[in-house]
Amino acid sequence: MATDPAALRVTLRIDGGFAYLPGLARPIALHAAQLGDEHAAQLQRLCQSACAVAPKRRASRAGVAPDGRRYRLTVELGDSRREVTAADPVDTPA
């Protein structure tokens, strides 16, 4: 990832679970440019960690809890775009 954390945009999508919750169905988007320098740098470190742990890996349906949620994190930095997926139970903090 580039060194300019202000160019970072992160989108989180959550689906699944035991009930449809419209508030959780909408994607949550965050632009690092809207944050202070310290928080933007922290967001960049967290994204680097998540992308390093799950390089282009898709969540496996085999280990998904029956009513578990699925998470899709899209990390965009300039022309680069990465997606990280996870499903309940999430097995790694990154």
**Proportion of β residues?**
25-35%
Radius of gyration: 14 Å
Strand order of the largest sheet: 2-1-3-4
Low-confidence stretches: none
What can be said about this structure in brief?
22% of the residues lie in helices and 32% in strands. It is an alpha+beta fold and 94 residues long.
Question: Can you tell me about this structure?
Answer:
This protein is α+β, with helices and mostly antiparallel strands and 94 residues long. It contains 2 helices and 4 strands; from the N terminus they run E-H-E-H-E-E. It has helices at 22-25, 37-53, and strands at residues 8-16, 28-31, 69-77, 80-87. The radius of gyration is 14 Å and the shape is globular. The two termini are 16 Å apart. The model has no long low-confidence stretch (mean pLDDT 79).
Topology, element by element:
Elements: E1 8-16, H1 22-25, E2 28-31, H2 37-53, E3 69-77, E4 80-87
Antiparallel strand pairs: 1-2, 1-3, 3-4
Descriptors for this entry?
single chain; 94 residues; 4-stranded antiparallel sheet; 4 strands
